[in-house]
Write a structure and sequence with these properties.
By secondary structure, this protein is of the alpha+beta class. It contains 7 helices and 22 strands. Strands 1, 2, 3, 4, 5, 6, 9 and 11 form an 8-stranded antiparallel sheet that branches.
Length: 440
């Protein structure tokens, strides 16, 4: 049976696969993901994944060199009496297509069932091994060949054309992550019948991986039931205030009793580090993310916070940072005293020479007080807009900050039910970069 953490990880990964929506009304403990903002049941656009080059796994020769090494030793192999040998090499990239499998057919209780890749992985990949990732998921599709070589003649007498579908997924409330590789057979011919594949896994960095959390048994190569392996490393950055990074590696090897020499072990390491921490402000659990992805908080003008969204949109348009995808990112500030300085600079109380709050309204500042770009960094560069009811500030462009009066209940809810859960869900630590995307 699956361990509890394994079943939980897979259930959460499955929940990420369909188009994400938020159906719940605003509440203090929101489940808003980095790509979402509370907006009733409406679907919001999803930011694009980042990409990273395919790395070479530690301790494993690059697959591209395997067949070259075999041919360089062909005379030695002849002398040893070998008849056929096999090797792995890269193949011309082939645009992958998603298998006709519905995510709804998968269950976290299935003991052996490979998770499907996110749709954006197939859309992004050209089959060249490039990694694509967001804050919680990473995937790669690579195209390779197993060549079977007749030692006496040097001719290729068999070939397996296959793609590896890799999927790494984290969770903001768990100390483990999943790393899966599926071997998808495209074509095979010649001396390849009876081939099996099996594998192993390791993790490098602030992590541990027990034998019991690796599952890659020997399986027959098959188009109808693709073999796969998975591993569930665990961070060791669990003490209060701890932050650690790690990368996991999956290995696999093809075997066939007819081959005198089996192909080399092939390995693939996730291209971007997984950061796990017990240092996210306001969160008491350990969780993990892909730190190189700068999360995006999506807020709709037609959602629960229209004036909040309007203010941010106009502030960004005036030259302030944070706009996705072309603006400069914001930077998280976790020091409460500094946040208070930012808030007091942008929104001083009338009793202290600041702004009178109209009945039912409160002062909203942008960039957020919880960022290093907040108002205290440029105290003289404030601005506002004609509808914002702050006569002490005029319009301007360029660096600085903005203040605006918006409905008090909306202002409070946006911070409590949107921005704070966004920070928590995405484990946005001190000096982490992030964006705010205002959409219709």
């Amino acid at each position: 049976m699956r361990a509890v953490f394994k079943a939980t990880l897979i259930a959460l990964a499955l929940a990420l696969l369909p188009a994400q929506v938020v159906a719940a009304a605003p509440q203090a403990q929101s489940d808003s993901a980095s790509e979402l903002s509370s907006v009733g049941a409406a679907k919001l656009p999803e930011p694009k994944p980042n990409q990273a080059k395919r790395p070479t796994a530690r301790g494993v020769g690059a697959a591209e060199d395997s067949c070259a090494r075999v041919r360089a030793r062909i005379d030695v192999l002849k002398a040893e009496g070998a008849q056929t040998v096999a090797c792995v090499t890269s193949a011309p990239a082939r645009k992958p297509s998603a298998p006709s499998i519905s995510p709804s057919s998968f269950s976290a209780e299935d003991d052996r069932e490979a998770l499907p890749l996110p749709p954006w992985c197939y859309e992004s990949s050209n089959g060249d091994g490039t990694w694509y990732y967001n804050r919680f998921q990473a995937c790669s599709i690579a195209t390779n060949l197993v060549n079977v070589i007749d030692v006496k003649s040097g001719a290729t007498v068999g070939q397996i054309f296959y793609q590896t579908n890799e999927y790494v997924y984290t969770n903001d409330e768990l100390a483990n992550w999943g790393h899966q590789v599926t071997i998808r057979l495209v074509t095979q011919w010649g001396e390849t019948a009876g081939t099996t594949v099996q594998g192993d896994a390791i993790c490098n960095g602030t992590c541990t991986l027990s034998v019991g959390h690796i599952d890659f048994p020997s399986q027959p190569l098959s188009q109808s039931n693709p073999p796969f392996g998975e591993a569930f490393p665990e961070t060791t950055a669990t003490a209060t205030g701890a932050v650690g990074e790690a990368k996991s590696v999956m290995y696999w090897q093809f075997k066939n009793p007819k081959w005198a020499k089996q192909p080399d072990l092939v390995g693939s390491q996730v291209a971007v580090p997984i950061r796990c921490d017990n240092d996210t402000k306001g969160v008491s659990t350990v969780g993990c993310v892909f730190k190189d992805y700068e999360p995006v908080n999506v807020v709709s003008r037609n959602g629960l916070y229209p004036k909040y969204a309007k203010h941010i949109s106009e502030a960004q348009a005036s030259g302030l940072p944070g706009a996705y995808p072309d603006g400069q990112p914001l930077t998280r500030q976790t020091d409460s005293a500094e946040a208070t300085k930012n808030r007091s600079t942008a929104c001083p109380q009338a009793s202290k020479g600041g702004y009178t709050r109209p009945a039912g309204y409160s002062c909203d500042e942008y960039p957020f007080a919880s960022t290093h770009e907040g108002a205290a960094n440029n105290p003289t560069l404030g601005r506002s807009f004609s509808w914002c009811q702050i006569s002490q500030l005029s319009s301007r462009t360029g660096p600085g900050w903005s203040a605006c009066m918006i409905p008090a209940t909306e202002n409070t809810a946006a911070g409590r039910d949107d921005l704070r859960p966004f920070y928590n869900k995405n484990r946005v630590l001190e000096k982490d970069k992030f964006y705010v995307w205002i959409v219709d």
